[in-house]
Design brief:
- This protein has helices at 18-35, 38-41, 264-267, and strands at 44-50, 58-63, 68-72, 77-83, 89-95, 100-106, 109-115, 120-125, 131-135, 142-146, 157-160, 163-166, 173-177, 181-183, 191-193, 196-200, 206-212, 216-220, 225-231, 241-247, 252-257, 271-281, 288-297, 303-310, 316-322, 327-330, 336-342, 348-354, 360-365, 373-375, 382-385, 389-394, 399-404, 409-417.
- The protein is mainly β and 419 residues long.
- It is globular, with a radius of gyration of 25 Å.
- Mean pLDDT is 81; it is low at 2-16, 28-39 and 187-191.
């Protein structure tokens, strides 16, 4: 059920023929279909637990235009659901009782079957959708599956010593590894190098060591530049997080440390450890980033912030601040940044920031069951799940719609836009 306001029309006699009376109604229906927001025409897929199903979760398709729920894959249960980068397909993990399998579902067809109890999807793919990232039992290693290599006998995979971060065009990877790496392992001239950030090709084969000692996964700014995070051992513990701007040619430049984001005169009396948690690029401006920060309280509560930072003039601006962790997401079109945070046991908020003008909108939500956020492919709408309903939020219109679950659904804990 969708919550919305309706008006009542007073019935009155009319000399107009009945056929003509229906024409405006038909025209109104056609107009609503034409002007209905495109992101609401794009189907939603939800992973939900039904009241009568204790063995696993079911996948439902939700049509917002008709407020209609359709159960897919009858008689089967699943544990994971996410969409391909272009929202043209779904990647599903199916529970088989004695094992599990991974399925690529596209255009109503199951194209890929991966059956391996020791492997599961990490909920991540390369930007072009050709490579699926797998979680394995191997520590500090990532296995990559080439989607177009799958045959009845299996799929081609490659294991890399770290986690890949693809460039925006998907042609290169940055690999952060805490162990020694063989550069160009297929070459007889391969050499073993130290832990750090490696530049790799599109399938994660390391080509060169760029920097040692990196503390956090790098973040691409463009197809040739990126931000990475390190420790400055010349600074005091708790004040030594540093950000560098770097290039794939191996050059780098320090751009900020935690002192750029906090008032050291007053905040040092409240907090004893300052941490740079995560960095998000501004896709509309390569000289600006958004930084997630945490300060740990000496006696009182911690502080979590989202700050915009200009890489050229080093100006910063605090956009969001909370005593609880801010779960962040960037829209697919790069225009919006969303942060989900807990206000109390019964209240949560979704803050949405415009990358263009830095305006912040706050949407009050109920008790959030899931931490999932997913933006529509055009960046117009974000979905957030709660215990009894899900929210469709359109920040450009300052609009929020509440869609309640059907009676047969206990709750949903994952939702994505799809084909």
């Amino acid at each position: 059920m969708v919550e919305f306001y309706t008006g009542k029309m007073k019935k009155q006699n009319s000399p107009i023929p009945k056929k003509l009376v229906y024409l405006p109604i038909l025209a109104l229906i056609i107009a609503l279909v034409l002007i209905w927001p495109k992101e609401l025409q794009q189907p939603l897929y939800l992973l939900c637990l039904e009241d009568d199903n204790r063995e696993g979760q079911a996948i439902f398709q939700y049509d917002a235009a008709r407020d209609a729920w359709t159960r897919l894959f009858n008689g089967r249960s699943f544990t994971q659901l996410f969409s391909t980068p272009d929202d043209s397909g779904l990647v599903l993990t199916e529970n088989l009782g004695q094992g599990k399998q991974t399925i690529l579902w596209r255009l109503g067809q199951e194209e890929l079957f991966l059956f391996d109890e020791s492997k599961s999807t990490a909920g991540e793919m390369s930007p072009d959708g050709r490579i699926l990232v797998l979680d394995t039992v191997l520590s500090n290693r990532t296995e990559l599956l080439l989607m177009n290599s799958c045959q009845e006998t299996g799929c081609q995979t490659t294991t890399i010593p770290g986690h890949p971060v693809w460039s925006p065009n998907g042609m290169r990877t940055l690999i952060e590894s805490d162990q020694s790496v063989w550069i160009n392992p297929a070459s007889p001239l391969r050499v073993e190098s130290r832990p750090g950030i490696y530049l790799g090709d599109e399938i994660g084969v390391a080509e060169s060591l760029l920097f040692q000692k990196s503390q956090q996964s790098p973040t691409w700014l463009t197809n040739t530049t990126f931000i990475y995070h390190d420790i400055d051992f010349d600074k005091l513990l708790g004040l030594n997080d540093v950000l560098y701007r770097a290039s794939i040619d191996g050059s780098n430049q320090k751009v900020a440390d935690v002192e750029n984001f906090w008032d050291m005169d007053s905040d040092l009396n409240l907090y004893n450890y300052f941490l740079i948690s995560e960095v998000f690029p501004n896709k509309l401006n390569e000289n600006e980033i958004f930084v997630a920060l945490t300060a740990f309280g000496i006696e009182g509560e911690d502080s979590h912030r989202i700050v915009s930072f200009n890489l050229e003039n080093q100006e910063s601006r605090t956009l969001l601040e909370s005593s609880s962790y801010i779960l962040s997401e960037v829209s697919a079109d790069g225009h919006w940044f969303s942060g989900l945070t807990r206000v109390s046991d019964q209240t949560n908020q979704l803050a949405v920031v415009s990358f263009q003008d830095k305006d912040v909108q706050i949407f009050e939500l109920g008790t959030i069951f899931s931490t999932d956020q997913d933006w529509s492919i055009n960046g117009e709408t974000i979905i957030v799940l709660s215990k009894e309903a899900f929210f469709l939020i359109k920040p450009s219109a300052n609009q929020i719609r509440v869609h309640h679950y059907p009676e047969n659904i206990n709750f949903c804990n994952s939702a994505v836009w799809g084909p």
